[in-house]
Amino acid sequence: TQQHEEFRSKQSVDDCKDVYFLKQTVVNSCGTVGLVHAVANNQDSIDFDSDSVLKKLLEDTSKMSAAERAKAFEQNKAIQEFHDAVADEGLCQPEPDKVNFHFITFVNVNGQLYELDGRMDGPVNHGPTKQGSFVMDAA
Questions:
Q1: 102 labelled catalytic
Q2: Of the ranges 94-98, 99-103, 109-113, 119-123, the best mean pLDDT one
Q3: Which member of 4, 16, 83, 102 is catalytic?
Q4: Whole domain around residue 41: which residue ranges?
Q5: Where is this site: Transition state stabilizer (predicted)?
Q6: How far apart are alpha carbons 30 and 46 in whole angstroms?
Q7: Which candidate in 4, 16, 30, 92 is catalytic?
Q8: pLDDT for the residue numbered 33
Q9: 22 phi and psi, to 5 degrees?
Q10: Which of 13, 65, 95, 124 is the most exposed place for a label (fewest CB within 10 A)?
Q11: Does the active-site annotation cover 30?
Q12: Residue 103: which CATH number?
């Protein structure tokens, strides 16, 4: 809504270097960007396959800015193919010109609750959190 967008425009982003943030520049990629945000900020809890396309993207972009990561994401053919294959399954095919939803991710990085919305210029810090209260803190 317009009210929500006005609220979002007043939120300030955090420049925390420990948070992996990717600016969303590909249309209708918010679900994929949200999943990348979730995985990227929880790599210590994930066992990647040795030939993981996602792991390679995260390694290659780890020192980049959010805008540079977006460019690398745009140009990654393997990620595009995975995204398109899932979209083609039809579980989430919006009618052309009628997309009216958006996905974001909440993560715990260094005991801080971050909201990662690829439409923003960076992560939004919502304050302290811990494993036991993460879901309630995000809500």
A1: yes
A2: 109-113
A3: 102
A4: 2-138
A5: 24
A6: 21
A7: 30
A8: 92
A9: -125, 125
A10: 95
A11: yes
A12: 3.40.532.10
